[in-house]
Structure formats: structure tokens, C-alpha cells
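Subject: Predicted fold for Programmed cell death protein 2, 355 residues

User T.R. writes:
Posting the sequence so we have a shared reference for the thread.
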Amino acid sequence: MSTKCIDIGFVEEKSNWLLHPRFFPSKVGGKPAWLDLKNIPNPTELFCKKCNDPLTFLCQVYAPYEDSNNCFHRTIFLFICRNSSCCQTNLTDNFLVLRCQLPRKNEYYSFEPYEENENENFPMDKWAKLCNLCGLKAPSHCSKCKKIFYCSRKHQIMDWQKGHKDICNDTQKVNEYSSNCFVVTEAGKSILFKEWELLVDEEDEEEAGNIDPNQEMEKLNKMMEEKKAGTMSNISESELEQYAGTLPEDKVFSKFTKRIARHPDQVLRYDRGGIPLWITGNTENSLINIPNCQYCNSERQFEFQIMPQLLNFLNVGIEFNSIDWGVLAIYTCKASCDAGPVYKEEFLIKQDLTK
Ligand SMILES: [Zn+2]
Ligand SMILES: [Zn+2]
Ligand SMILES: [Zn+2]
Ligand SMILES: [Zn+2]
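User M.O. replies:
I've generated the C-alpha cells; pasting them so everyone works from the same file.
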């Protein structure tokens, strides 16, 4: 058995400006903090394969390859379709994973880290126009002020109704928005997930080995009572007990609950080259073929997984409630290659808790 330390991630409230691209954040919700600021994918590349709606930014993980100059900065982005009807058991058509990387010396960011100064002059709009609402690439603009940009007519109308019509004539306010296109607007709040910083730290191994299984089920139940969303709270307690009662049949689920009980609020597990912590043994993941990188043909390896607990922090409205997953396991090109587009598509497996 491996005793290797893995990293786990938690969400924490953070001011929007501290999650700006120049700080290379790992984050959840809000607008994507793009890494390469010029070669941002077109909105058409970010459409849901099921319903064709634009995808919504879910989270990003800043994960450089320390020993590679080309990956001095490296971020993995996750997008999801907001329509819960696109969410299907163990299928990933409503997701998109993108990888982007930059050398330390690049045209966008300084060689040395930025100081935490809110008023730093960092004009992102000189590289690409981004949607005032969702932060995706924006091919169209407000025809009146010509300074606020949109990915789609839908978002333009929403923004007009929820605030832009009141400031369109106010040159100063329009300039503020156009020079800082990373701010989440009122209209943006209605379609984006709640914004959080994603803090990643070593998993504390202290308690490993002396966990009382009853106690850990209790902790997990408590966690599920407190939080209203997420895969595991969609299952009633009696169902869960029944499920737990099937142990040791589903040893994988038992291992899963035991491992996460140490840190019930974890939303991410990062273990590059490792093995995902699956939520159930009822799907035969060993049979799933992980395709090689479509750009360089290298093997892909497991990099990190998003946990169902993240659903508890997205703060989504009623229409989101049935967006769901057990674990999202992200696989990326082992070579983290530079071939292909600047934002490269990677692979994910969604495993749901099914009997
Ligand atoms: Zn969809
Ligand atoms: Zn938009
Ligand atoms: Zn306008
Ligand atoms: Zn590759």
C-alpha cells in the first residue's frame, strides 16, 4: 500500500480581485481566470455536446510542472452545462476539460510574481474581448457604448436588463467595467457559480489507521445533513444506511467514505500520476479506456479529481439542483505537450453513485 502524500483542496471566500489571472489562482465559480489571454477558445468551442448551450465555468486548478520550462505556469479548466437535463449517469457530454500552459517568460505576465495590489494596471482587454457576463470570448458588443462585450445575444440581453441599461450612458462606469472585465456583474451572478478560492494543501495523514468506521459514518451523515446539495444528500439516510449495509460488497464506497471522513469538506484530491479515489465499485472503471493525447499521442495520466462535496458550495438556484456527480476524475497528457491549440482538450471520467 502506498503511503504517498496527496494534496486535497478546500474552498475559501476571497475577494474577486485576488483571483485575477495575474495571481494564477486555483478557483471555483465566477469567470474563468484565463491563463493565455489572447488565444482564448471561441464560444462555439465551449458548447454543450448535448444541448448546444454555452458551457459555464466550474473551476480551475493551477498545477505547474516544476521541471518543465514550458509548464512554468499551467492551469486545468473545467466547464459544465447548466442544464441539469444534460447530466447523465457516468456520462460526460455536458463537461469540457481544457489545459493551458505558459513559460515563465511570456507576453502576458511579469517574470516575477505580482504584488497583491488591487489597483495594479493590468489591461486584459488589449488581448481579447471577454463577455461582461460570463467571461468567455466575446465577438459582439453593446451597440450604444461600444465598450462592453458579449459572447452571445442572450447574455447581452440579460446584462442590459440587470444593470447595463442604467450605466450605458455613464462613460466613467462603462470604462471601469471595460478595463476590468474580470469583475462578476449582477447579471453574471445569476448565471455563474459562486466564486471561491480553491486552497490546496497536503492531506493530513495523522488519523490514518485508527479510524472507527461507525464514527466515520456518523461524520459523513452529519456532513450530509448540514449540506443540502450533492450526490450523497440526494440519497435518503435510510437508503445510505442500506447502502452502507451492503458492505463489504462495495468495498470501494467504504474506502471512499473512510478516506474523506478525515476531511469531509474536501472538494479536490490532487494526485498526479496516482489513482483516483473512486466512489463505488459498481462501475467497472478498469475497463474504461483512457484515450491518448489527441495532439502528441502520449499516454494520459490521472491528475486530480473533483469531489461531490463541491456541489455544496456552488450556491446554485433551483434550476441547477439536479446537476450532479459522484467523482470527476481528470486525466491529462503525461508529457503536458505543447502541440495543438493553446487551450487543449483533456479527458475526464464521471463516476456516479449507483447501485
Ligand atoms: Zn447541455
Ligand atoms: Zn457570455
Ligand atoms: Zn452599452
Ligand atoms: Zn500531449
